Amino acid sequence: MSPRATPRLGFEPDYAVAPGKTLQDTLDELGMTQEQVAARSGLTPGTVNRIVQGKHRISRDTAIGLERATGVPARLWNALEMHYRERLAKQTDAPGSRRTSTG
Question: Looking at the domain assignment, is residue 84 inside a domain?
């Protein structure tokens, strides 16, 4: 193995799941609407909807608002966002691969 090669260990999915999917699953589990999350988090309903659709990034401040609204720690929302963006970047850089996401 050359010094520049990186061994691939573990599972490497060929897809990326937007954190908004987890947010929607959380809302469903809590029986909350997007409007309720918006009111409790200080976000606009449109922003919450765009997050759920995978069209809006979760910033650190947004993660804190989501924690306040859902009880899910901000560190989880931040980690989901980071892993999602990392996965998208790897897909974009991989030869012959295409960029896909699910929101």
Answer: yes
